[in-house]
Amino acid sequence: MLFCFGLSCKRKTAAIGGKKYSIYILGKDGREYLVETNTLDSGKILPERQGILLDPAETDRDIIVKDGCYYHLNRKTKSFAKYSLQENQIKETASVPLKDFAIENYYWIGQDSLLLVGLDTENFSQVRSVLIQSDKMTLIKAADLDIPRPSGVFNSTFVGFVERKEKELFIGYTYHQRLSPSNYTTSDTMYVAVLKYPELTLLKIDKDMRSTYPGGTNLIQSYSFEDEQRNFYFMTCPGIALGNRPDLPTAIFRIKAADDTLDKNYFLDISGSVIGNHAYGIWYLGGQKAIIRSERKDLFKGLSDHYSTAHFEFYLLDLASKRVIRKLDLPLDKGTRRECVIVKNGVAYIAVNSTKEGNFIWLYDLATGTLKKGLELAGDTDFIMRIDQLNL
To answer: Cα separations (Å) of 354 from 311, 313, 358?
Structure first.
């Protein structure tokens, strides 16, 4: 079946294949493009000339990129599909039926074992998991997880991260309360369920009220990582754009490598004492350093202009000392949720959508702390939505 998604896997054509990076672009008037390139360090790309025009009725930025392949939940066909380029046409090469399933998070259990965790699409209250053999695109296991459904004033569940440690699976979640057809808020409590793996039986549930909305949909943006010692860190996002509990602080939590509970002694308060604003997205640099993307609440009026107004700043954090090292000298960025940082060979590549300076990939040298402009996305580019490595 021909699927106008514009995505490729192990491409052979010279024009758009065999590249190292992919860039998902939202163009002017809602046009969307996928561009592949061998370098982010320099040059200029016009997506209308060098990219693939995507069908916005079929496509979205919530994709999984691995080993030159792209994976996406096709909501129209209710299947999870893998895509490739064959004879200069974009085709769905294989798919797995996934009815009544909305992906919230994914986790690579192994080289070709992809775990999807999400919710039912009827009430968005039952947490479900699907394990897929990605090389053959076959279903290994699907299960409803024994995580409590919402109750009382809460209408739906939110799953914000998934992490496996040996024979245990950690799932961070909270609950939503619907305020109107277009507005919701979040419980003041976050939960971390610990399940036995691979049986997926519930062992216990940890909870914390210091912040809420743990993580986020990681198909769209990164909110968690493991350090070199296998300690697991995640960000909570209670700001108006995600949890909509701005009375609680954005914070970073930790689960130590040998533990199965939250580290009650670790709490990096971003929007309280550290920066004074809420943040969305965190990317690990190595050596206990990380980059976060923080909003400027003095520069936007509300959700109506949160995405279109350039008001985001990037900060360098020291996780060990729980402090901000400095604000990176980058232009104000726009776009609420974006996968916009790649770390490779001692450089952090940071995609910035600047109203004044244009759309560039900036290079942050981790050793010297210097910044310089790299690849420019020009022409029809309005937003750089995500940047990915095609092959890790």
So the answer is: 9, 11, 5
Q: How confident is the model over 168-220, as pLDDT tens digits?
A: 999 999 999 999 988 999 999 999 999 999 999 999 999 999 999 999 999 99
Strand, coil or helix: 303: helix
pLDDT at 71 over 50: yes
Total domains present in the chain: 1
User: pTM of the full predicted structure?
Assistant: 0.94
The residue type of 335 is G
- Residue matched to tokens 């370098």: 39
pLDDT of residue 89: 44
- List the alpha helices (DSSP H) in the chain: 47-50, 303-306
Task: Give me the percent of the chain exceeding a pLDDT of 90.
Answer: 85
> Has residue 147 been placed in a domain?
no
> What is the sign of the dihedral through the CA atoms of 60, 64, 70 and 73?
negative
Concatenating the DSSP letter of every residue in 198-233 gives TTTEEEEEEEE-S--SBS--TTTS--EEE-TT--EE
Name the residue among 181, 155, 312 with its Cα closest to residue 239.
Answer: 312
Q: Which domain holds residue 22?
A: 1-75+370-386
Going by C-alpha positions, the residue among 291, 279, 274 that lies closest to residue 362 is: 291
Q: Is residue 61 part of a domain?
A: yes
